[in-house]
User: What shape does this take?
Amino acid sequence: MFKGKKEEQPVIRVSKTETIGTLIGQGTVFKGTLTTKETVRIDGLIKGEIHSEEHLIIGETGRIEGNINSQSVLNAGYIHGNVTIDDRLEITSTGVIIGDIVTNALIVEEGASFKGNCQMQSMISKKDEAAEEAAGKDKDVEEMSADVEKEK
Assistant: This one.
């Protein structure tokens, strides 16, 4: 007569203007390379690479066995492969990643699991650019000083 309390599912965030263009449902197995220009939600199993120009949402039942390249990823499921993200990677409390990560922003909720290496690309790039710019300015000053000495 009384049913047990339903377990709450985490909220998978999609902006109000964003629509999910492709859904790989629970119980579905896809083998190969998935390439898309739209947002994809995966609740099934993907064995292969994923290339997405938009957002990738991996639900709690979603499982990826392969590398991912995407604009952004929200992972509440399981990923075994390297993940390269242009913008932001978020791993929810139920999310697991086994593999290396390259991203501009990383958000990890308490309870999430990650095994691998992580590179925060935007910070590295900005620091490298600043160092190169500073080195270039120093070189310009040295060249100008040398020119002044020659004129004397």
